């Protein structure tokens, strides 16, 4: 994050880009870093369900079969994993209405 901010600040000082672009890039990188941390820290069963659903494009039924759990359990794992990931989203998006785009 600090490296990105320093690189972009140098580009801004040279007349390339705007401060708004710099802040947007930094916010985007921060959200990505938080999401990566959340995925790495989440319990293995939730992470496995999300990886099957996202990377292998499996629906909850296929995910349940692959993990040898019930469909209800697969849906629960996917829902909880997505809820955890949603907290990574930057709730301070400029111009967004109050309460938009982040966990409360």
How are the SSEs ordered, and which strands pair?
Blueprint: H1 2-13, H2 19-41, H3 44-55, H4 60-67, H5 71-86
Calculate the terminal CA-CA distance, rounded to whole Å.
24 Å
| Major pleated sheet | none
Average predicted confidence as pLDDT: 82
How many domains make up the 3D coordinates? Answer: 2
- Computed over alpha carbons, the radius of gyration is 18 Å
- Dominant shape: elongated
| Order of helix and strand elements from N to C terminus | HHHHH
Total beta strands: 0
| Count of alpha/pi helices | 5
Could you characterize the architecture of this molecule?
This protein folds into two domains: 1-41; 44-90. It is 68% helix and 0% strand. The model has no long low-confidence stretch (mean pLDDT 82). By secondary structure, the protein is an all-alpha fold. It starts with a helix and ends in an 18-residue tail after the last helix. The protein is elongated. It has helices at residues 2-13, 19-41, 44-55, 60-67, 71-86. The longest helix has 23 residues, at 19-41. Residues 38-85 form the RNA polymerase sigma factor 70 region 4 type domain.
